[in-house]
Amino acid sequence: VVSPLPPPHCPGAALHVQPYKEAASHGPHGASPGGAGSMPLKLVGKVLFKGSTRVTPSVQPHLQPIRNMSVSRTMEDSCELDLVYVTERIIAVSFPSTANEENFRSNLREVAQMLKSKHGGNYLLFNLSERRPDITKLHAKVLEFGWPDLHTPALEKICSICKAMDTWLNADPHNVVVLHNKGNRGRIGVVIAAYMHYSNISASADQALDRFAMKRFYEDKIVPIGQPSQRRYVHYFSGLLSGSIKMNNKPLFLHHVIMHGIPNFESKGGCRPFLRIYQAMQPVYTSGIYNIPGDSQTSVCITIEPGLLLKGDILLKCYHKKFRSPARDVIFRVQFHTCAIHDLGVVFGKEDLDDAFKDDRFPEYGKVEFVFSYGPEKIQGMEHLENGPSVSVDYNTSDPLIRWDSYDNFSGHRDDGMEEVVGHTQGPLDGSLYAKVKKKDSLHGSTGAVNATRPTLSATPNHVEHTLSVSSDSGNSTASTKTDKTD
């Protein structure tokens, strides 16, 4: 057991942040940084989450976490900070997307002070959100792995994060990982669940308690608020690691997207959908606008001829263009990776579609079907998919509302009056990926702090490129995911 460092010396009532799991674990990932007991922490006039329970220092300084408190209740509270020891060496720090900027900055500083006091130079912060120069100035070691809120990261990015975590945790028994997030905690959930599967293969049996704690945290706190595509990518990652999912290296050409069940986005029913398709978060296709009157159709088919070649991480987003209004709504969103697609016909039910799975305007029986082939030529015998005469299509896609890309600014830095940091770039592909999991592999990520060193034995420049680990046949890399706007 590692002796705890003294708490920060600042006025205020001392709080105790409990690990998410109650039992202390052992082994490289489970050495307690402060013993099996609680960890002292002081904050001034702030609201702190212990696990998922909000406490106020001046009123309830020793309140124990309420383990069965619902996530929805937690998120509805006007919280400023959610800090959880998922295991003794994996810390999740999350802020709501609506956090007041002034309070957010203040809490960032206090979290940094606590981490330095408790863990010294033995913590590595993974930023899963938008880049902020103040984060890299507050922490000596930062890896930038951000992606848009409510989305899933690229499959190779998940692999890179897990490799980086494992490398850091195995380098020193005192080392801890801090997962930083602003927005929906689904981002943290993806990382926790993926690393749970990763460590299940690469780690020893004495870390079973850690894996149990990660599983419990994910199921209790993340699944109720996560998106279907996030769960899908965790399933991909787990299956590719275990070998239960075989990689498909064949090119796939998308010919038809069929929406079974018409959503009601207009006052009289019906909708005006159009598609935008992204490969590696870069737009590759925009459809025309389909006008579908209410109760006139049971399905609509959007045909792409010749077929659209897709490879790697794919995002398909279906919008509704409001009638006589310069606005658009998201009907559904779905992310998938072509390496896991083995059938030429793939169907996603409502429960599999981001946004739509909880939208009453999308029918409960609704589903979206994708028709692929192995070549761009028109598929014969698909005449039955043609839409009826009541469906008209406007191919004027020059409308700025249609062309506007909601992912084009994510990698830009937030202007908070602090100095700019160098943007990260995509590194080389090394030709390997999911077939083998190696312990103490090279660290992947991007350090972004002044005078920061890469958390390995040798010092490197302040900003290290992403060196992605991805099969050359698995698709395009997405080292630079683009925007915090998800509409």
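(ticket continues) Second input and output from the same batch:
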Amino acid sequence: MVTAGLIHYILNLLHVTVHIRDVCVFLAPVFSGLTAISTYLLTRELWNQGAGLLAACFIAIVPGYISRSVAGSFDNEGIAIFALQFTYYLWVCSSPEGFGGVGHKLNTRLDAVSAWGGYVFIINLIPLHVFALLLMQRYSRRVYIGVFALLQAYAFLQYLKDRLTRQEFQTLFFLGISLAACIVFLTVIYLTYTGLSTSPSLHRCRSTSRPRGCPSSLISTSWSAPSQQAFGFASRTSMMNACLAGKVRKHVSEQEKAEEGLGPNIKSIVTMLMLMLLMMFAVHCTWVTSNAYSSPSVVLASYNHDGTRNILDDFREAYYWLRQNTDEHARVMSWWDYGYQIAGMANRTTLVDNNTWNNSHIALVGKAMSSNESAAYEIMRSLDVDYVLIIFGGVIGYSGDDINKFLWMVRIAEGEHPKDIRESDYFTPQGEFRVDKAGSPTLLNCLMYKMSYYRFGEMQLDFRTPPGFDRTRNAEIGNKDIKFKHLEEAFTSEHWLVRIYKVKRLENREALDHKLRSVVSRQKYTSKKVSVFPLRRDGFSCSLSFMMLSTTYSCDPHTHLQTPQKIKTTLNSRERKETSNNQ
């Protein structure tokens, strides 16, 4: 990321308008070409140009490096392999000259440090080589001078960093780098113009019979003077040449005999075999590149018996469902392998992704996946999880699903929570990891198992296999009666490759477990008294008597209803008034 950002910044300074996305896409292929060049240079220094060309061809088509250098592969190794090869090349070039070129090696090693965690191979191997050279007494004063100069430069930079602001320090640093580059450029132009810089072969003579980094065993001198001066020394060196002529001739004759030992037929056979191997390797690399690295990883393809190809687009289907059917602030819990895809394609927040450095956070997700539902629900509540996403390949036979990765979840969780999670609990007594009835009870009841095989026991894939047969593990699952209390299925893709579950929220008040109330009806009393009022034609007394006979009275002493005695007194008073009025 640092290298991509630096390239984008430099291009913007040069007024080259390039989007940062395009820089990230084409970063790996560009450094792949530079890796081939650095490999050629390194091999040429160690052997010859032919070996360098062959090594460059190999590094350009090797499948292990193609997977890290295709367009769109924004990984550390795309830059780090180039930094590794170029550092070794600079070190091999600088070793015979007394550890020169320190600045170039320092810059390359800093690039490797910023790009790749495997830079420890470089910073450990080079000091080991220096230590071996010191034991062989092949050091010079320039070693101490160079180290002393680097320490002084570092101390001076730290002093400026403490005294200046960050903006001023960056400005001064870039000015210093630019000034140094200008001085080197002008020096090269001056030496070329004045003629002081000529071919290296006119100034020094390298012994071609020794490898790089080895001390020269011969004293060889070359001259850039006219040929007359060379002939002037011929008389003084003729006796030495005569003494050495026999040894040289003997060495050449032995080499000729060794070459004559291999007949032309054997050479032809070996050459043909090597060419056939190279052709087969090139065909294999081309096939791997076209099938494995030329298609996106979120779209899978399978081939039928007749050669037709099926496209499995379950990943994009699930991510599109997440994007359209969940809240924009929803948090998704999944294993870290799918963090970047969920964040980039579904635009949802994930707990862990490919850039998570906190191992305890990854272990907490692994603990939730490997615990039972109740314990996992407490962890998900503490992490405020809304959805859980898993990958299940039992229907289509996809071997990269979460069940096959499950043991790594258990191991990482055990490293942080050894009291709660133990890897041995997920194996059978015979030490097997099985998903059928013989599997461990801890495995058959963990959250990952239940989410993967929920409703899978009802599915029969073909007539030759029983319901609940896992094509990836080639076994019938052991727990088919799976029910959830705290989760509910939210989405399952077409081929069951991606399954998403929604985490239920706690109710405001839990249901109480009390018994039904037995309601006892109160005892009713009906007055059996007959009417004492005389019958009248207007029907007033008759209706009143009927009302009194059919009225139900409460036995409650605190009631506000009138008693029969009060009603009788009231009616008698009314009757007397009516009689007096009639009279």
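Agent notes: The radius of gyration is 45 Å. Residues 97-110, 197-245, 247-252, 531-562 have pLDDT under 50 and may be disordered. Closing as not reproducible unless the customer responds.
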